[in-house]
Amino acid sequence: MQNFTGVGVSPGRIIGSVRQMPKPISEPPAGERLDSATSPDAATADLRAASKVVQAELKRRAEAASGASKSVLEATALMAADPMLIKAAVKLIVTGTSAERAIWESGASVAEMLHNLGGYMAERATDVLDVRARIVAELRGVTAPGIPQSAEPFVLVAEDLAPADTATLDPDKVLALVTSGGGPQSHTAIIARALGLPAVVAAVGVEALTDGAEVYVDGAAGTLMVDPGDEQRTAVTAWEHVAASLSVFDGTGTTADGHLVPLLANVGGAADAVKAAAAGAEGVGLLRTEFCFLERDTEPTIDEQVVAYRGVFDAFPGKKVVVRTLDAGADKPLPFLTDSTEPNPSLGVRGYRTDLTSPGVLKRQLTAIATAAQASSAVVWVMAPMIATVDEAADFAAMCRVAGLKTPGVMVEVPSAALRSASILTEAEFVSLGTNDLTQYTMAADRQLGTLAALNSPWQPAVLQLIQLTVAGATSEGHNKPVGVCGEAAADPVLAVVLVGLGVNTLSMTARSMSAVGAVLKSVTLERAQELAQLAVSARNSDEARTRVRAELPILEELGL
Predict the structure, then answer these.
(1) Which helix (H) or strand (E) holds 135?
(2) Residue ranges of the PEP-utilising enzyme mobile domain (predicted)?
(3) Strand partners, 324
(4) Pairing state of beta strands 284-288 and 430-433?
(5) In CATH terms, is domain 40-140 a member of 1.10.274.10?
(6) Residues of the chain with CATH 3.20.20.60
(7) Strand 284-288 vs strand 263-267: parallel, antiparallel, or unpaired?
(8) Per-residue b/e over 317-326, b at no fewer than 16 CB within 10 Å?
(9) Start-end ranges of CATH 3.50.30.10 in the chain?
(10) Which residues, in sequence order, are CB contacts of 415 under 8 Å at separation 6+?
């Protein structure tokens, strides 16, 4: 019996047959030259045409997707026509290099540059390599890489998935997802959770598994076992019974002793909001407004934005909807707003900071949000991403007041904001912790790298301590202001208990996560959650923190979590 261990990122137990991701497009030979019958101009035209075909296909797939999947596909589509990528290839073609080899070398250079920048830009490196392979496939007239086709459902195994592939996973065909690379906050992990697929990342060696091998995958434990026996089949049967009960959220987040913890939804647009409302979400804790801006060469008009926001607000009449202003830059470049030549975009002009280089865009967005809010009964709050100082918080709050928005808040993604939360909350009415970025910036760990998965865990005691300090700031100096979590940490039922114990007031997550989080919260009192939080904060490392808390929650075994 062969076992593999990685990081469990989405719970579930499944037995199925392995299907490996197809081998990648082979590299064009080094030094490959243009055919004597093909001029540089003709090869350049072919390359541009191929990039447009690839972009159109990715856009088509984006139109059929929603939420996080849609945004990933749209971002990848933008990369397919990225001027830096294409121009570098054209320069090589002019010297006589074949179009296939030119785009290959150009893609390698751009990807290496982005990877070396780390953080969010490393994610774009994956996009570049994916796009490069698709363009080469189009030039060769062969099928582009993608999820394997199969008449029967299967367990998908890969070194890692390109964002565009991850975004088009079909949960009716893919039973579980296992990769040897990636991390707990990678695109692969986020999309798996959104789809409810059992998933394990950073499981070294699984790419050697053969197609057709029968395996048992435990997405909570982070394990894969070849040739499962009766014990594993019994575990799958038990999970199937539990999964039915975990598919429904009763609409009220609360601890065992009645302490209310509203469970809100992370959404990217009206379609997501409607589904979240139907799933029992108590409101929206994160509306990612940049989804309205992606794939645009020009800024959307105020009227266009009003329509997009109203679709979300109307799905939650009388309930809270927290709107995050445009989080452009780094992994979400926008042609009309971000500078693609920045040496380190993840530490550059992104989020709130774009108002420094493109003044007016944020003001117009706030006007659109206020206009949409006035025509809706939703209780609209608004927050800015990447706030690092008290002055920035004050400036944003002032802009909100001018626009007519009464509840301004800030994202705590930068350690300085956590450390200075008391002062920041003299200007803002609430804070929301973006644990993905807070973890990445605190630990200086690229969330895409499987080798850094342990560092890039929100269970890191240093990250938990920053959350604790944020809450302390919100309740000091006469404050009594709410603290929410809208990062991926909120979707972890075990970590949710710790967050509540640290004093977090609301949790926001994918709609699929609400039932499991709600079930585990109902198994503990607030006092017990506080005790478990201290166990985690005082741990030596992330593994010890997680192990300590899991050992004190017997309901996890019962629920297969």
Answers:
(1) helix 119-140
(2) 152-222
(3) 288, 383
(4) unpaired
(5) yes
(6) 248-559
(7) parallel
(8) eebbbbbbbb
(9) 3-20+153-161+173-244
(10) 438, 441, 442, 466
Largest CA distance in the chain: 79
Convert the pLDDT of each residue in 107-143 to its tens digit. 888 888 776 665 556 667 777 888 888 899 889 988 7
- All CATH 1.10.274.10 domain ranges of the chain, comma separated, are 40-140
CB–CB of 50/56 below 8 Å?
A: no
d(CA 190, CA 195): 9
Contact 420, 390 (CB under 8 A): yes
pLDDT for residue 406 is more than 90 = yes
Would you identify the CATH topology of the domain 3-20+153-161+173-244?
Glucose Oxidase; domain 1 (3.50.30)
Quote the tokens at residue 333. Answer: 């470049």
Q: Compute the distance between CA of residue 335 and CA of residue 430 in angstroms, rounded to an integer.
A: 31
Residues in binding site for Mg(2+): 413, 437
Bridge partners (DSSP) of residue 250 are none
Q: Would you state the torsion angle of the CA atoms of residues 303, 307, 310, 314, taken in this order, to the nearest 10 degrees?
A: 150
- Token pair 């603290």 in the structure block, residue: 483
Q: In the chain, count H helices and then E strands.
A: 22, 16
From residue 152, alpha-carbon distances to 156, 161, 196, 351, 411 in Å are 12, 20, 19, 43, 44
506-509 and 223-226 as β-strands: parallel, antiparallel, unpaired? unpaired
Residue 288 bridge partners (DSSP): 324
Q: Identify the H or E element spanning 174.
A: strand 174-179
Pairing of strands 506-509, 263-267: parallel
| 3-class secondary-structure state, position 496 | helix
Tokens at 328, concatenated = 């452009």
Which residues are marked as active site? 187, 486
Residues 495, 474 contacting (CB under 8 angstroms) = no
Min mean pLDDT across 30-34, 142-146, 174-178, 539-543 is at: 142-146
Give the Cβ contact number of residue 238 at 10 Å.
15
| Full strand arrangement of the beta sheet holding 199-201 | 3-5, 223-226, 214-218, 13-20, 154-158, 174-179, 199-201, 7-10
The residues with which 20 forms a beta bridge, in sequence order, are 157
255/518 Cα distance (integer angstroms): 8
Are residues 219 and 198 in contact, defined by beta-carbon separation less than 8 angstroms? yes
Tokens of 172: 């009716």
* C-alpha distances in Å from residue 365, one per residue of 196, 372, 440: 33, 11, 28
pLDDT digits (tens, 9 = 90+) for 215-263: 999 998 899 999 999 999 999 998 887 877 777 788 899 999 999 999 9
- Only one residue has tokens 């179009």, namely 99
What does R_g of the chain's alpha carbons equal in angstroms? 24
Range 304-313 average pLDDT: 94
